[in-house]
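#lab-general

N.A. 3:47 PM
ok so I finally got the sequence cleaned up, no stray characters, all 217 residues accounted for. can someone with queue access submit it? mine expired

B.Y. 3:52 PM
send it over

N.A. 3:53 PM
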Amino acid sequence: MSVRVVLADDQPLIRNGLRVLIHDADDLTVVGEASTGAEAVQLAREQQPDVVVMDIRMPVMDGIEATRHILADAGPVRVLILTTFDDDEYVYAALRAGASGFLVKHMALDDILNAVRVVAAGDALIAPSVTRRLIEQFAGQVPAPPPLRSSDGITDREREVLTLIGRGRTNSEIAAELYISPATAKSHVARLLTKLGARDRIHLVILAYEMGLVSPH
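B.Y. 4:20 PM
back already:
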């Protein structure tokens, strides 16, 4: 079945370009377009798409607030942020609002399509180098809570894994650094998602910073 996509951007040229791009993909379908965050929320409720590709700076309601509203509704809709990254100071807030990842407007067309597919499949975009830059830039904007406590149920090994996730490591890199198998690393990540109630890997990165396991520098 095709992945159902809503495009939310106040720039018609951006929406038109994405619509044409998605139209040429056999497994993706645009089911609605919005020029404001409020329109995106309404379309998400009406169409129940798999993915909303969401700009951040839009009139009436910005993409962050729209993301909160969309994800507060019941349903499996996932939000993929569209951003210029270099000058957008709201990306961190958007991820905290529940977005599953982000796109950069100047990234390769194939990467944009793949990003939509990844999010639709229930995963998060976690390009390590970009994620490190993103989180390190914005993590300092919120106060860090106390370090992890034993009552949180996190083992020493899981703490090590979470720290490496916060540094943008992939499962393979975690396995190599901790001298464990990739399958074991994947199992640790899965347990952390469950124990911490995290939505996805990007959420784990954010939690690692908020818990003081990794510091911006």
